[in-house]
Amino acid sequence: MSDPRSRLPAVNLLVTEVRAAGRDGGATRTELVAAIRAVLDDARAHAGDAPPDGWVTAIERRLTEANRLSLRRVINATGVVLHTNLGRAPLHPLARQAMDRAAGYSTLELEVGTGDRGSRQDHVRTLLQTLTGAEDALVVNNAASALFLLLHGLAGGGETIVSRSELVEIGGAFRIPDILARSGTVLVEVGTTNRTRVRDYELALSPRTRLLLKVHRSNFVLHGFTSDASLEELVHLGETRNIPVVHDAGSGLLIPLDDAGLSGEPLIPDSVKAGATTVFSGDKLLGGPQCGVIVGATAVIEAVATNPLARALRPDKSILAALEATLTLYRDPERARREIPTLAMLTEDRASLRRRAKRLARRLPSAHTEPGTSAVGGGAFPDTELPTELVVVPVSSPDRALTALRLGDPPIIARTHGDAVAFDVRTIANDEFPIVEHAAHAVLEQTP
Ligand SMILES: *Cc1c(COP(=O)(O)O)cnc(C)c1O
Question: Which of 61, 195, 422, 441 is most deeply packed, by most CB within 10 A?
């Protein structure tokens, strides 16, 4: 008997067959041959049998897989609006277009009027001044690097005073005491876990004090017998001793959302008004790209902007393009709330959620809707549970169904709900409903 592997077709024959069938997807010969070799290797591992669905289909599938990028779009059906694993804030269409435009040659560092070299910061400075009330602004890669830059520039070699109740870990191993140590400033802790007064800061002042730092707790809240020194009190104390005050405000909330049941996050214009140099993230509540923004007095911004570290932390052109487009929407706060995806999702009302959930449920087999809760995520409004309407589909194995949904294209990230999978429509756009419908049918056929 001859070796069954000798039955395998020749590479050249398969090249011709795939090309003749028009199923090569525009691959070059090198790409096509690599895919064919991989499929032949699979066949050898299976005693030389042809793939169950035929050579051409198997090769075509291989080509598609080889071209699929790892960083892909997903459908967020979790209801967690700022989902760090899913890339935090989804961008407004205008911000996406701006990124695309900036991807080629652009006016990044060009003064078109004079032909001179410009600053990449100029594209967002005026907007940030107008929207926050600050004298000046600087954008870097993320809030963590913004804080690092400020600590290094303003307090390196000296002491920074922080309340014990604010020595937090934000997630992804970002810990305030560690970042202080790394930026070369000595941490002076004051107060207790639950109560800190301005007097505690005052008693800790020394000739080495260079900075008073206030950190928004972001991902947890203190309840009960608690008190904090206000930012105004700290700025007042700082002014009497000529010591700057930095507020790490976290999320970048530019407009109030209290009427949508969302309160407790610091408003950036309030921090600026209080007189603190303020740091915030671009891709949390602000709803923009990943970046860190510093706003404050010109003297402080200039001091940190000229630190060589600022060059190491400077943002990319596509980031500045997306940030500019996002900030532009805030010139009309009503429009920002309605259109910026994070704000629109967070403030969608019950009636709208219920209506959309019913619409999705009608498309899914044996689905019903029931009230549930969504989370803000991203370390903002940590104890706020947003009432939502879930689309619930009973399945025999919720975990297997979740996996199957994740392995689809695009992946759908849902959650379990008792003996069912649940889709939270808060984070699913209407034009994504057909994708969810299609995937749910396929999954329910495999894992009823
Ligand atoms: C999220 C957060 C950070 C880190 O922001 P990144 O932009 O993710 O680096 C820093 N400080 C506070 C208070 C935060 O909430």
Answer: 422
DSSP assignment, residue 262?
Answer: B
Q: Is the dihedral of CA 181, 187, 192, 194 positive or negative?
A: negative
171-190 mean pLDDT: 93
In which order are the strands placed within the sheet that holds 209-215? 136-140, 292-296, 277-281, 245-250, 209-215, 159-163, 186-190
pTM of the model: 0.94
Tens of pLDDT, residues 263-312: 889 999 999 999 999 999 999 999 999 999 999 999 999 999 999 999 99
Percentage of the chain exceeding pLDDT 90: 88
| Closest residue to atom 1 of ligand 1, CA basis | 250
Q: How many angstroms is it from 144 CA to the middle of ligand 1?
A: 6
- Annotate 345-383 with DSSP letters as a single string: HHH--HHHHHHHHHHHHHHSTT-EEEEEEEE-BTTSSTT
The residue whose C-alpha atom lies closest to atom 5 belonging to ligand 1 is: 143
- What is d(CA 55, CA 76) in angstroms, rounded to the nearest whole number? 35
CB of residue 313 inside a 6 A radius of ligand 1: no
Asked if residue 174 has its Cβ within 6 Å of ligand 1, the reply is yes
User: Does ligand 1 have an atom closer than 6 angstroms to the CB of 144?
Assistant: yes
Binding site membership of 379 for ligand 1 (Cβ less than 6 Å): yes
**Secondary structure of residue 422 in the 3-state scheme:** strand
Residue 438: partners with Cβ closer than 8 Å, 6 or more residues away: none
Query: Quick one: pLDDT at residue 1?
Result: 42
| Residue keyed to tokens 């407790």 | 264
Q: Which residues of 304-336 are buried (b: 16+ CB within 10 A; e: fewer)?
A: bbebebbeebbbbbbbbbbbbbbbbbbeeeeeb
pLDDT one-digit tens code per residue, 89-148: 999 999 999 999 999 999 999 999 999 999 999 999 999 999 999 999 999 999 999 999
Look at the chain and count its residues: 448
